[in-house]
Amino acid sequence: MIPGTVALLLLLLALGLPVAAVLAILGMTLGDLIAGLPLSRAMGETAWSANSEVIIVAVPLFVLMGEILLRSGVAERMYDSAVQWMSWLPGGLMHSNIGACTIFAATSGSSAATAATIGTVSIPEMRKRGYNQSLFLGTIAAGGTLGILIPPSINLIVYGVLTETSIPKLYLAGFIPGFLLAGLFMVTVLIACLVRPRWGGEPVATSWDARLASLPALLPPLGLFLVVIGSIYAGIATPTESASLGVIASLALAAANRRLTWPVLRTAIEGTMRTTAMILLIFVAAFYLNFVISAVGLTHEINQLILNLGLSPLQTLLAVVAFYLVLGCFMETMAMMITTVPIIAPVVTSMGYDPIWFGVIVILLVETAMITPPVGVNLYIVHGIRREGALQDIMLGAAPFVLALLAMVGILIAFPDLALWLPELWEQYR
Questions:
Q1: Model pTM?
Q2: What's the domain count of the chain?
């Protein structure tokens, strides 16, 4: 049953059908051919249960917050400040890309919004200052992935819903690995520019007066971060309520920058509707597929197959990592999470691994999928902003950061407390 299901999934994906349609067709096919029961009649109930969780409301709210920030003018000022403080490093603006992505990730919750925003303001500087274009574009694609690891994160919310895990704990678990990963990205740039100094481009002239004068530009994203994340841990708001506070704060920032116009609002709302519709349609189709898989006994069959392999917990975990790396080359990341997490997470946690820790591992693997060909979404976002050259240039530039992501996965496997220390500390003192 398992080989046939996988073959059908790959065939439907190869035909170029939308992911939600692929999942729905696969679910209906399995239900009709194997169950012998009209499982399709449960689709309405499945759709309702998939979208009736209150926490799901946070998804469109965080998407809207990112859309507004994308057009608010905050990113341009923030990037200029990052340039002033990081341009002295070998690789100058490439460190600024990663630093700005890290800061913006702590406000937007979206990888795509982070890559698009920082790419828009930084690529013109790349052309003027003679950077190695491949590596420069790779820093934008890789830095953008931080948007789904550093809180607030839409993908962490989805993982929490799928596994019934605490969202505040998942957010805390993402902090240290997120900032450590940003540091690994910067070390990657540093090594590349020390080996090939010409890749570092022309340095930006600055002074301490200019650096200090740029600091106020960092206050809006910091304030927004405190509103969204601080309200959760202060006990003032739930994650859903904090998302709505974030929307209000992002509207205030756009108004303060004189960017809050009807065309901007209309574009932001349209973008939010498209992204939310895509996510929730995948949600419905994946929930129905998971229902069918459970009903026909495929979940039990998968669990038994894994157990019968006789692998140790570490070997099983490494097999899961390899599975996600391969699947990420062919499947959209949100669909990959929604489809696989309900099946794989119980297997991994039954072997003694913490579900909070495993959530961070899954997000790191999803980040890797965002910059691995042929369907790495951040590669296409950066390529679309660049509007010239070959996509292969960006793939090549992102390759060193794939290695950095895999190194981060290895570090978390070796030192799980990097993800678990803050959640345990919060649980102890709250």
A1: 0.84
A2: 1
